[in-house]
Amino acid sequence: MKSRRQIFYPGRDQGPKKPFHGFIFGYFVMIAAVLSILPLTINTDSIYYREPVYYSVTKNATKIVSEISTPAEISSNHQLCRDISLMSVALKMTKFSIPEKAAALKKATHVFNSVSAFYLDMPGGIFTSVTSNIQTILEGYGMKRITDKKIFDQLAVNHEVLLVENAFLAGIRNVTLCVDESCDTMFRLVIQSEQNREFLPEYLIKCHLNPNCLIWEYSESNYAWESKDYNLTDSVMIVPTMIQNRFDHLAPTSESILPPDRRDIDVAFFGLMNSRRIKLNEQIMNLPSVKQAKLEQNTNTSHIVDAYGRAKICLIAHRFGVFEAAEFHRLSDFIRFGCVPVVEKWVEKTGADEFQRCGGLVMAEYEDLPKSIDRVLTQDMDTLQEMQRRLAWWERGIDWSSFLNASIGARLTTPVERDRIPVEKRSAASKSNSLHPLTQAVFSDYDTFTKNKASTYSETCTGWAEYKEWIERLFTLAPPAPDCDTVRNFTNAYKDISSWKGPLEGTLVLSRIDNKQNKAYSLTNPQETLGGRYAGLTSIWQEAGEKRHLPPSVEMILYANDKPRVRTDLGLPAFTMAGSFTAGSGLPSQWTNHIPFPSYFYLSELQEQTGFWERPSILHFRGRFSENCWSRFKTHRFQWMQTPRFKLALGTSNPSDMDVLDVKLTGFGSVKEPQATEIREALRREYNITMGEWSEQGSVHSRYALAVSGNGWAGATFMRALLSGSCVLFINDNSTDYEGYSRDLGEIYFPFLEKGRDFVETEYHTIAQTVRDLNADPERAYNISQAGLKFAKKYLGPSCALDIVELLAWNYYKYVSKGCPQTFSHVHLQE
Fold first, then answer.
1. Can you name the residues that pair with 620 across neighbouring β-strands?
2. What is the pLDDT of residues 764-818, one digit of tens each?
3. How far apart (Å, rounded) are the C-alpha atoms in residues 377 and 306?
4. Which residues contact 650 (CB under 8 A, 6 or more apart)?
């Protein structure tokens, strides 16, 4: 589509020339002369502060942005974007905070030239690329990374190492921070990564008071309140590390991106769906120009990357409100995928003109974002050539390895002794608590247990050997040491509920396994043993404690619900069903204090079955709209439209598919009459969704079974479908729901499933076609059903649950006894 935008290029004829005013020219020459000598007369060693301008757009861009929506085509057509790179913009932002002779520049030079080693302890996830960039910056300045905590502790005593800190992460993960008096003198680099101006000001002030501590800020607007409100100017250096590259290895090149006419997603946004963003997204979804959108909370990389690559527009909307810092982390995530960046205005001045002119940003006020999106989609969509020109500018990136040299100058010569950093070697002697008697006893006893079990496992769960290997590998991903305070709280929780620091919910269950007491208790009522839907799980705990070989004393807490928390919520127990992996993908990507555990709420043996060929060649499914958001049907359309069961009902509502589908939603989990009837009528009227009645006929009587998430993920549904002997279809929904819960699979057996062998993966809108394809190749459907049944016999059922309890208990006991031996001090084991 040809762009309708009117672009003004520097040097282009913009109309009749106005007469020259010599007086005005002379006036500006005089002002320039005065400004040129100011640095020689002002003592910049004192507090250095500039008030950032809160503006709509930069002065040069005002005319342009008022008439256009996406300035991408400028990038190759005028000299500005040929001379300016992302690297030069980043350096411009940095030098704004450390101008020549500024105290902050002197402090930065002092910190980075006083040591030749650094210790960087930041987690992965969204910080993976940020951590990598920081490491590249420091190594590019001639510093060596230390990864051994013991070596760091030795060097820190003599102020020979730089500690890189991020206090925000300390609230969600065990990271290394300075302690007490050491914070006053230790060489430290504090990474400030947050948008909220109220975040830990005392922590930043303490760094400012340390002559050897520097704050790396990514945002000019944050720099403003740090300087104005807390007088931290002398200790703050803007380094835009949040301009990251964590998805770059998955991004297409500028030559291979999808052209606009092949992009089927109109708008994409991934982030925390708070009320401000939900309101905006509902407005966007009501735009006539928006046919398909991905506006959701999701942490699955493949899902996000796929959406960015297919999106026409990628959106940024602030979480807290106006006047927020630039969300460089989100911008740099999607910019390489070719979508037009429509961005809620930020308050940064430095570099904003370049980001709009060369980087293609479309900036708008919060209220005008829907209008801007509509205009881009209907009038100003980029051509493929414009997209390629914009991406060519971004692809040049930032040379982090030379960043410090370019911003603060070349490294000074450091003492020779400082360069003699010990070479790190891993040895058996360096293992934590390797000689502790309890640890030795645990390892010895575990070895005996596994050897004995290996000779008899075929009598119970035939998948025991694979489970053993997988669980042991799982624990290799654990942090160096567990959170011992949390372990102690778990140990005492069933006795004294006041010691429990986590959320008190009815779905949290304390499960104690030892040689004397084998019961599961509700954490909200420590005296009440569990039954009902948890009866099967409770019986597993009891039988494991009575009949299985377990460590002398193990406390395990289970989040006994089919809806795992988001992965960043580390207030959860050690044993939960939450996991960061999906079917067939193997090990979790990282340890998040969550150990996947099988729910087994509905323990089932193999069902009595009819032969596969005698079953009707249809897919039978019954289920409910389980999510709580259906009670807000009128006011929160965006929430329930994103639920798995609505997407299922919509994708199977075509009457022409009734020859292969018998899929009906039968009711609501949280809605009563008369509202339920009102919703039924609205679904039928607006979406052609008709609800059905519960049927005793299950998938055991049809050739195809469906595993689909309800208000959690499809763990128990998947297990029952595999046990039915039908060919299992699975909808892999990796999105995150409106409450922030992950729909990623978390059952412990999922890593052993193989897509295409044990089950067939499908999407909501392709279920009917998938069944037709299988009916056209019935031998394939039969083979998959038999492979799934074989899998179920090997890995599922009560005997497997008992074995997994043993394996998890022993491995968790080993892990805790190494890091927190005092936790089991009441246990006396002989070497």
1. 662
2. 989 999 999 999 999 999 999 999 989 988 888 777 878 887 887 788 778 777 7
3. 20
4. 687, 689, 764, 765
Per the CB < 8 A criterion, the answer to whether 793 and 755 are in contact is no
| Dihedral of alpha carbons 732, 737, 742, 748, sign | negative
Sign of the CA dihedral with 778 first, then 784, 786, and 792 last? negative
Residue with the two structure tokens 């020459």? 29
Question: Higher confidence at residue 394 or residue 403?
Answer: 403
Last residue of a domain, one of 165, 195, 217: 217
Tokens encoding 550: 């377990």
Are 543 and 661 members of one domain?
no
Same domain? For 556 and 628 the reply is no
Q: Tell me if 510 sits within 8 A of 523, measured CB to CB.
A: yes
DSSP of 575-623? B-S--S--TT--S-SS--S-B-----TT---PPP---GGGS-SSEEEEE
CA count, 13 A, side-chain hemisphere, 395: 16
The residue from 217, 244, 274 where one domain ends is: 217
The separation between CA 467 and the C-alpha centre of its own chain, rounded to angstroms, equals 27
Q: How far is CA 261 from CA 311, 312, 368, 389, 448, in A?
A: 11, 9, 25, 17, 64
Q: How confident is the model at residue 216 (pLDDT cuts 50, 70, 90)?
A: very high
Q: Measured between alpha carbons, how far is 665 from 644 in angstroms, rounded to an integer?
A: 12
Q: Which domain holds residue 549?
A: 446-594+802-824
Please indicate, yes or no, whether residues 711 and 814 belong to a single structural domain of this protein: no
Q: Do 789 and 689 belong to one domain?
A: yes
One domain, residues 647 and 769: yes
- Give the pair of three-digit tokens for residue 513: 């396994």
Task: Give the model confidence (pLDDT) of 58-92 as tens digits.
Answer: 323 322 333 333 444 443 444 567 788 999 999 99
Number of domains present in the structure of the chain:
3
**Position with higher pLDDT, 739 vs 620:** 620
Confidence of residue 825 (pLDDT cuts 50, 70, 90): very low
More confident residue, 471 or 735: 471
Q: Are 758 and 815 found together in one domain?
A: no
Q: Greater confidence, 92 or 536?
A: 92
The C-alpha angle with vertex 24 and arms to 19 and 29, in degrees rounded to 5, equals: 130
Q: Both 775 and 816 in a single domain?
A: no
Mean pLDDT for the stretch of residues 126-139: 84
C-alpha span between 332 and 341 (Å, rounded):
10
Name the residue with higher pLDDT: 159 or 67: 159
Residue 567 lies in a domain: yes
* CB environment 546-576: b (16+ within 10 A), e (fewer): eebebbbbbbbbbbbbbbbbbbbbbebbbbb
Token readout for 422 is 């010990």
* Preceding omega of 751 cis (within 30 degrees of 0): no
Q: Do 779 and 654 share a domain, yes or no?
A: yes
